[in-house]
Each structure stands twice: as C-alpha cells, then as structure tokens.
Design a protein that fits this description.
By secondary structure, this protein is of the alpha+beta class. The chain is built from 17 helices and twelve strands. The strands form four sheets. It has a five-stranded mixed sheet with strand order 1-2-8-5-3. Strands 4-12-9 form a three-stranded antiparallel sheet. Strands 6-7 form a two-stranded antiparallel ribbon. The longest helix has about 30 residues. The radius of gyration is 22 Å and the shape is globular. The mean pLDDT is about 85. The structure holds protoporphyrin IX containing FE. The site of protoporphyrin IX containing FE has 22 residues, from α12 and α17. The site of protoporphyrin IX containing FE (HEM) has 22 residues, from α12 and α17. Belongs to the cytochrome P450 family. Keywords: Heme, Iron, Metal-binding, Monooxygenase, Oxidoreductase. Its cofactor is heme.
C-alpha cells in the first residue's frame, strides 16, 4: 500500500457548526476543500449551514442519482457559481438553466457525437506533436508541466472549436482566462455575503478587464468568420447557422460569444489539469509507468498516431484514475428551486446541495484504499462491479459534461505522445497541495524536470 499523500489529511480544523462567518470566508478564499466537514469522507449525507444558509452535502451514490438524474428539474445551478462565472460566460450552456440551457445543449450536441469527435483526432495528435517537438531541447531542464499542458489543450480547443481563429492572440486569451479565474474565490465569497454586485474586492477590476478583453476578442473572431462566408462543421460554424426548431430564432452574437467562451474555459483548463496530475502520478509510480510504456510500444511501435488512441486502454485507465484522485471539477453545486425529499431527508427550496466530488472519490464506503493510485480500478470488471455514481468526474444526468468523450480521447492522446519519449521527474519532494479555485489546481503549478528516453520515433 502507498503512503497516503498530504491531501489524505485534508480536513476542517474548525468544525462547521462552530465556525464564525469570518472563518468560513477564510476557507472559501484560501481553499474551500479544507473547509468541508470531516464526515463527507465517511457519511452518506451531511446537513450543515454555510454563513447561515442551509447546505446539504450528498455523497451516497443512490442519493447522487436522485439529485442529478431523477430530480434534476428541481435544481438550478447555484447563484455563487453563476456570480463567479457569469460576467465572462454570460448565459452560455454551463451557467444557463431551463429552456435557455436546453436549447443551447441541443444545438451543441452534434459537435460532440462520437463520430464527430473522432474527426478531431488528427488535430489533437498534431498539437501533442508540437509540444513533443518543443521539448526536444529541454533535456535536464525544469518546466511547469501545467503551463505546458494549458498551452497544448488551448491550441486544440482553438483548432477544433474555432477552426483555428487565425487572428486571435492566443497567449493573451489564455492569460486572461487564468487572471479571471484567479479571483473566483472572492466572487463566491461576495455571493455568500449577499453583497451587491457592484461591491469591489481584490482583483475585481483586473478580472473584469480580462472578461471584457475575452468577449471582445471572440466577437472579432465571429465577425471575421461571418464576413468570410465560410460555414464549417466546427462549433462556431454550427452556432452561426443554428436556429431554434420551434421558433426559428437565430442565436444573437452575444449568445455565441457566451458559448464559445464557455467551451474554451470549460474545455481546456480541466483537461490540462488532468494531464498534469497524470504525469505527476506516473512519475511516482514507476511500475504503472512501465505498463503504460509497454502498452504504447505494443499498440504504436512506430509512434503514436490518431488511429492508435482508442486502443490505448490502460493509458486511458491511468487518466481515469488520475481524475478520481484529483478531479478537476472537485465540487458540483446546485440550488433547490422546489421543496423535495432526497432519500428520507426533507429539502426545502432554497437549500444549496453540494456534491463534494473530491470526497466522493475518496469515500471510505465506496473505495478500498482510497488514497492509493491504482489504474486497475478502471478495468471493465471493476467498473461493472461499482455503483455508476461513485465516480463522477464529469458530473451526471442531463447536465453531464458535453465534452467527456472529447476530453478522454484528448488526454489519452497527449499523455501517450509525450510519455513515450520523455521521462518527467517532480522537482519537489512533497506532492503539490491541491487548491480548489473553481477547478482543482496544484499549488505552485507542476514543476518537473524533463529527460529523454532512449531514442525512438514518435
Ligand atoms: C478532463 C476534462 C473535463 C472535466 C473533468 C470536465 C468536467 C465537467 C463537469 C463536472 C461538468 C458538469 C458541471 C455541473 O454539473 O455543474 C462539465 C460540464 C461541461 N463541460 Fe466539461 N469537463 C472536461 C472537459 C470538457 C471539454 C473538453 C469540453 C468542451 C470542449 C467541456 C465542456 C463542457 C460544457 C459545455 C459543460 C456544460 C454542460 C451543460 O451544462 O449542459 N468539458 N464538465
């Protein structure tokens, strides 16, 4: 058995019921993960209050199904998330509710069908190849793997969703997204305090500037695309051509900007985090890394190409296990908009329901040795034997991640392309501390040293 990593000891120092509002705020701003009640790792459900607000943590898989699938209509996305993301993402597919969400989801779905996602594979493998080539001179150098993965996945999202968007300042767009997300803790804290939306907080001006820049850059890309008269089967082409089947209404430019930004933000950061944690875990588990290398050598002896990705089954299991230990979306939140019951519990409208994905994935009733890294948990038999809702890195029910298939393919392709050629070693002795700021980020990035493996062609 492996020694538990430091996040095994993450737990609230001050129990929720004895916390002042100031202590709660401190947790929200520093690392909400460390503010969850300790019982979320062992109990089916925990009822508590956050800043006086009724809050229900749900961990039991049957109850998760009730919230996310059977009674999904009784919930909306929670106001704190909307407040944090709304100024940039507007009422795009991730933050909208009701009919406005349903319409957008229907429109975007064809892009993410399995057959269409397969057509993205050459672009994905080519982008992984560019990072591979950039690393060629990096022997012995230290790099931030998280930064490198952000660039790679960003490149992919722009190629596949915006058909390249040739005039876009990609670096500035990527930096603006990071700058925007950095202040999310404050935006959530302001929502919990029920502060008016004009209330200033540290970083708010910079976040707003980043949000305006992003929206302007995308508006320009849309105008250029429309002027060019090109249609195209990427997401932008689809949204430009789309109309409501019932009313015939077209999407306004503002709606298209909302959605493109949503796909860029939701689609690249999460995948790059998955990859960073995967590289880290492989570096700490040479026996697993050896199995991955053996699989790649057997499936793709001449180098990884688009045709190999679906057959890299064990490599995909590594990605899935990395998302269990470090789920990029570590918390899902909903607001009950009707009175209902969950299990035997009466849940009045206005209750915040929290699915603490990180705790569900380490729950002592659901996993054996929950802190051990073991990709065999995702072999077909093990998956069949487990409750479907014990593992929810992509959410569940009607609002499950639309990009799930895309992300799994992309992460497997990038991991296989790079690990086959390079050995990465962490610079620090201790595992990075996971920090929950909308997504689960390694505190201080993921600095690792690169070495080339014995020569083989890509
Ligand atoms: C490893 C990578 C990814 C993870 C872990 C992830 C996780 C999630 C989760 C948990 C949700 C549900 C949120 C909720 O229920 O509140 C979600 C929704 C969503 N994701 Fe992903 N995602 C990933 C990659 C992607 C990619 C590649 C795209 C697009 C290219 C994407 C686009 C979206 C969109 C648009 C939604 C909103 C869906 C809706 O509300 O109908 N995601 N994602």
């Amino acid at each position: 058995m492996n020694a538990p990593p430091p996040h095994a000891t993450i737990k609230a120092v001050v129990p929720a019921e004895r916390r002042s509002k100031l202590t709660t705020l401190r947790y929200v701003l520093r690392n909400p993960l460390e503010g969850w009640p300790e019982e979320v790792y062992s109990a089916p459900m925990v009822r508590t209050r956050t800043m006086g607000h009724p809050t229900l943590f749900v961990m039991d898989p049957d109850l998760i199904r009730e919230v996310m699938v059977e009674k999904a209509d009784a919930f909306h996305k929670d106001p704190a998330t909307k407040r944090a993301l709304g100024p940039a993402l507007g009422r795009g597919i991730l933050t909208a509710d009701g009919a406005h969400w349903r319409w957008q989801r229907r429109l975007a779905s064809p892009v993410f069908r399995h057959e269409n996602v397969q057509t993205f594979l050459p672009a994905i493998v080519a982008a992984a190849g560019r990072t591979h080539d950039e690393w060629a001179d990096a022997e012995g150098r230290q790099i931030d793997v998280l930064h490198a993965m952000m660039r790679t996945t960003f490149d992919i999202i722009i190629q596949t969703m915006l058909a390249g968007a040739p005039d876009m300042d990609v670096d500035r767009v990527a930096e603006s997204i990071t700058a925007y997300l950095r202040t999310s803790g404050w935006a959530v804290a302001m929502a919990l305090l029920r502060a008016p939306s004009w209330m200033p907080y540290p970083g708010r001006r910079r976040a707003r500037r980043s949000g305006s820049y992003l929206r302007g850059a995308l508006q320009q890309a849309i105008t250029a695309r429309r002027d060019s008269g090109a249609s195209g089967s990427d997401l932008t082409g689809l949204l430009l051509a789309a109309s409501d089947p019932e009313t015939g209404q077209r999407m306004e430019d503002g709606d298209i900007v909302d959605n493109l930004l949503t796909f860029i933000a939701a689609g690249h950061e999460t995948t790059s985090l998955t990859l960073s944690w995967s590289f880290y875990l492989l570096s700490r588990h040479p026996e697993v890394e050896a199995k991955v290398l053996a699989e790649i050598a057997a499936v793709a002896p001449q180098g990884v190409g688009p045709e190999h990705i679906e057959r890299l089954v064990y490599t995909r299991q590594v990605v899935q296990e990395a998302m269990r230990l470090y789920p990029p979306a570590s918390v899902l939140m909903r607001l009950a908009v009707a009175d209902l019951t969950i299990g035997a519990e009466v849940v009045p409208a206005g209750t915040t329901v929290i699915l603490p994905v990180f705790a569900i994935h380490h729950h002592e009733a659901l996993w054996t040795d929950p802190y051990d890294f073991d990709p065999d948990r995702f072999g077909p038999e093990a998956v069949k034997a487990r409750h479907r809702y014990a593992y929810i890195p992509f959410g569940a029910g009607p609002r499950i991640c639309i990009g799930m298939g895309f992300a799994l393919l992309e992460a497997t392709a990038i991991l296989a392309t790079l690990i086959a050629r390079y050995r990465l070693t962490p610079v620090r002795d201790t595992p990075p501390r996971p920090l929950l700021h909308v997504t689960l980020r390694p505190d201080g990035g993921m600095p690792m040293r690169i070495a080339r493996r014995a020569a083989r062609t890509r």
